[in-house]
Amino acid sequence: MVNKKRSVYSSRWLQKYCKDRYVIEARKLKLRSRSWFKLDAINHMDMLIASGMTVIDLGSAPGGWATYVKNKIGNTGRVIACDVLPMRKISGVDFLQGDCSDPNVFKILREWIGQKKVHVVLSDMSPNITGISIIDVNQSIYLGNVALNICRDILMYGGDFLVKVFQGKGWDKYMYDVRSLFNIVKIRKPDASRSHSREVYIVAKKRKI
Questions:
Q1: Of 53, 86, 125, 176, which one has the greatest count of Cβ atoms within 10 A?
Q2: What mean pLDDT is predicted for residues 170-194?
Q3: Which residues contact 208 (CB under 8 A, 6 or more apart)?
Q4: Do 198 and 167 meet the contact criterion of CB atoms below 8 Å apart?
Q5: Mean pLDDT, to the nearest integer, of 129-134?
Q6: Phi then psi for 126, rounded to 5 degrees?
Q7: CB of 136 within 8 A of CB of 167?
Q8: Could you tell me if 165 and 73 are in contact, meaning their C-beta atoms sit under 8 angstroms apart?
């Protein structure tokens, strides 16, 4: 009975996904993912990405955000993308496959960056969804903290941070930690983010220290 219910749920989800206007539009434009529209909406509001910047894209696969960023920063900028999943090559994007919470993977990422700090850290990392809220939220907050710790190490003074986090237990503490590091913190829920989803995007600007 449980497997049958899961099958019905999966079938309904697939039907909704195929009818999703952002999925349809992404296919028309030959984009790698619908998440491109989320970053586009946020960047129009908050102006995070500009020509010549060095940007880190965590949780990058399949490459929607990395493609968007590369088009914005031009040939004078740099994108370093990282994900545990493989990602098809994007011209002008350096891709590191691995878990960025792994010290050995982060060491490589740090070496790729070099001595300079980066302008922007993006994180669209998401846990493997279980459907159990407390577990999914906890894992999302954990990934948010991974991204925030990376900011502490490689983000320049005055730099910006964009991270996806699920709202729930641990949210208030996480927001406190983000506000401790940045002067401006806003919450965004772009139209391309499904209304029933717990996900929101935290835009944190102007690193303090």
A1: 125
A2: 94
A3: 157, 180, 181, 182, 183
A4: yes
A5: 91
A6: -140, 140
A7: no
A8: no
Calpha distance 184→95 (Å, rounded):
30
11 three-state secondary structure: helix
Give the pLDDT of residue 30. 61
Task: Output the CA angle 163-87-202, nearest 5 degrees.
Answer: 5
Task: Return the exposure string of 57-94: e unless at least 16 CB atoms fall within 10 Å of the residue's CB, then b.
Answer: bbbbbbbbbbbbbbebbeeebbbbbbbeeebeebebbe
Kindly report the pTM of this predicted structure. 0.88
Q: What is the pLDDT of residue 192?
A: 79
Q: Summarize the confidence of residues 112-123 as an average pLDDT.
A: 96
Q: Which sequence positions are flagged as catalytic?
A: 164
**CA 39 – CA 55 distance, rounded (Å):** 13
Helix orientation angle between 35-46 and 21-28, rounded to the nearest 10 degrees: 90
Can you give the length of the chain in residues? 209
Distances (CA, A) of 139 to 88, 159, 190, 205: 26, 26, 22, 24
Give the whole-angstrom CA distance, residue 176 versus residue 134. 20
pLDDT of residue 9: 36
